């Protein structure tokens, strides 16, 4: 068994969390990951409602028991999403992409540990001062919104700079990837892209097909989809997505917002967004999330046993 701080503290069998992917990670995906021995996380994006959190939390709990909820800290101004997340009584709450300090005490008062994804050492120090319990070093290989530093350099830098338990995210899609970050000193990993072709994900069907056809060089780091959809992400975070006709035409262009909004079509695979990371080339078949998680953990254990 791959026993780490993560498995001991969260009471899970495998040192794997599914990433809280907004628009893709609902209750079924989270539940299947937890059922398999990891911890599945719901992705509560800015446009998520409190009712959605309550409904999907119930689904996750029915399938897998434990689950987590990931929130975008910059979007929590009115407090309703955080209130809903706390009320759902998850195993862990993620407060990422912004200073978690205004919210950590409320989560801790409910007896829930706090996880924070960071993209720089300065982010880590901010989260550390806020009193979070777990750091996730999310490298720029990750799908969706992320930073610019690669996973391995960031992970090494963060491990040297903090005494908090650290997880790794970004580009981890096989047992080799999990073994690598565990050997480096991480307590576990967040998996995202590798789960996106699973039937338990939500979102358009074409997103799964496009991921299965993509290679690891077929992504682009861009803010053009946020601009087109009027998503007010802080400027420092772009999103890694699969390239398509929309990115070819508008990425790094000077087109105004109105034209981008008119051109964007979420129902068209050539014009809609599919956030995915540089591990896309490792996703070649649609498989259930639970089987993926168990296979990755088993292979990592085999590799680590060599030492």
UniProtKB/TrEMBL annotation:
Pfam families: NMO. SUPFAM superfamilies: Inosine monophosphate dehydrogenase (IMPDH). It comes from the Bacteria. GO terms for molecular function: nitronate monooxygenase activity. The keyword Oxidoreductase applies. Keywords: Flavoprotein, FMN, Monooxygenase, Oxidoreductase. This is Nitronate monooxygenase. It comes from Antrihabitans cavernicola.
